[in-house]
């Protein structure tokens, strides 16, 4: 998914937040990503920019899409990150410049590694279910992996573990001894929690964690949580109590605090202003009258999408410069 803000602000993060358990509620904000699509964005936020290597968290829906276009995100570029696509309801078609064409459905994972550069599109298929509801997340690549060759991985069956009244599906990383087959480059975990009563999740005290509500209301670490909000939990926790009265779907995100400074602007995760400028210029140089990205081997071309690619927004007048992870 693309960041479609008309004037995206830079996000530069360094791991300077104090360690220890906390409960910090983050209110999401509504961001339009097209004429018909609105997402709720909880990361990056003015009060917290990352959880481990997780640097971008959007949720969308539930939206009735049977009589509407549904999701329609034209070809756009990425560098320096991995995208994680996860659905609660509906279906989304992914196309990328590697030639991938993959439909993702609820319970399945689409994981795209941008590395040095890739472009992709996402849209609801013509023959689509009536509802669309899900999440799009980004993982920042560490410095030694951000130049890797781009790749795409679809995992149709993910491992699950039952923890009393919580069934966890492990998208990436490890939880309660269960390991996802998805390839990641940092110590991270992402899991969907289907909560029916109450349970206790084992955690790694070296990780920092956050929990996002997808559907229903829950109580997490004695804090009420509902859709549109993310609860940051800090580090040094060995377990996490979760409960619900009427059922809830949650996302657990965690990882070792990301020690490297990053500059995040539009769809790029970099380290310097110059890298952002170069990536943007390469993408724009490849746009040929709306016919499609022709940017050579860096971003390639997405075949099969009916429409022009997204132009990059203008850069801010000031140089993109570092500021702390925890303002």
TrEMBL record:
Which residue ranges are recorded for the region named Disordered? 1-22, 298-327
In Pfam terms, one family for this protein is Pirin
Which InterPro entries does this entry report, sorted A to Z?
Pirin, Pirin_C_dom, Pirin_N_dom, RmlC-like_jellyroll, RmlC_Cupin_sf
Q: Where is the Pirin N-terminal domain?
A: 40-139
Signal peptide from the UniProt entry: none
Q: Where is the Pirin C-terminal domain?
A: 193-286
Give the top-rank taxon of the lineage listed in the UniProt record for this protein: Bacteria
Q: Which Gene3D superfamilies match?
A: Jelly Rolls
What family does the Swiss-Prot or TrEMBL record give for this protein?
Belongs to the pirin family.
> What protein does this entry describe?
Pirin family protein
What is the organism field in this record? Answer: Angustibacter luteus
């Amino acid at each position: 998914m693309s960041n479609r803000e008309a004037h995206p602000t830079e996000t530069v993060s360094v791991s300077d937040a104090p360690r220890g358990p906390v409960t910090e509620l983050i209110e999401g904000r509504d961001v339009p990503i097209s004429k018909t699509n609105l997402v709720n964005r909880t990361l990056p936020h003015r009060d917290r920019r990352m959880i481990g290597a997780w640097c971008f968290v959007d949720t969308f829906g539930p939206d009735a899409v049977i009589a509407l276009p549904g999701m329609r995100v034209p070809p756009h570029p990425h560098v320096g990150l991995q995208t994680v696509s996860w659905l609660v309801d509906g279906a989304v078609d992914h196309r990328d410049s590697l030639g991938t064409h993959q439909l993702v459905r609820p319970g399945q994972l689409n994981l795209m590694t941008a590395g040095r550069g890739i472009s992709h599109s996402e849209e609801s298929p013509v023959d689509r279910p009536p509802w669309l509801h899900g999440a799009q997340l980004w993982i920042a690549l560490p410095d030694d992996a951000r130049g890797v060759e781009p790749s795409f991985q679809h995992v149709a069956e993910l491992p699950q573990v039952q923890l009393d009244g919580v069934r966890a599906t492990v998208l990436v990383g490890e939880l309660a001894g269960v390991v996802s087959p998805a390839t990641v480059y940092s110590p991270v975990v992402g899991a969907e929690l289907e909560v029916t009563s109450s349970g206790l999740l084992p955690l790694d005290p070296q990780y920092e964690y956050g929990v996002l509500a997808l559907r229903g209301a829950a109580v997490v670490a004695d804090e009420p949580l509902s859709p549109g909000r993310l609860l940051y939990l800090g580090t040094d926790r060995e377990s996490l109590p979760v409960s619900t009265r009427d059922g809830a779907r949650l996302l657990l995100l965690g990882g070792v605090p990301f020690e490297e400074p990053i500059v995040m602007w539009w769809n790029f995760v970099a380290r310097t202003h110059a890298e952002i400028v170069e990536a943007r210029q390469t993408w724009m140089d490849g746009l040929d009258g709306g016919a499609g990205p022709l940017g050579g081997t860096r971003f390639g071309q997405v075949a099969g999408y009916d429409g022009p690619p997204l132009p990059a927004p203008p850069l801010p007048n000031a140089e993109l410069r570092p500021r702390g992870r925890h303002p």
